[in-house]
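Support reply, case 0932

Customer input (verbatim):
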Amino acid sequence: MKTVFKFMVASTLIVGGVLVAGTVFSAKKIDKYGDDLQNFLH
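Our regenerated output:
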């Protein structure tokens, strides 16, 4: 039972980390595209 619980905690942390990393990464990419677009429009 403890092994299952450890596995659940580990997988939750991994999934959470991937989601956070993906969100930060896409936010930075969108930010860069936004800057490029502003430079293009001005």
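We compared this against your earlier run and they match. Two observations from our side: Residues 2-41 form the longest helix (40 residues). Residues 18 and 24 are 10 Å apart (CA to CA). Please reopen the case if you see a mismatch on your end.
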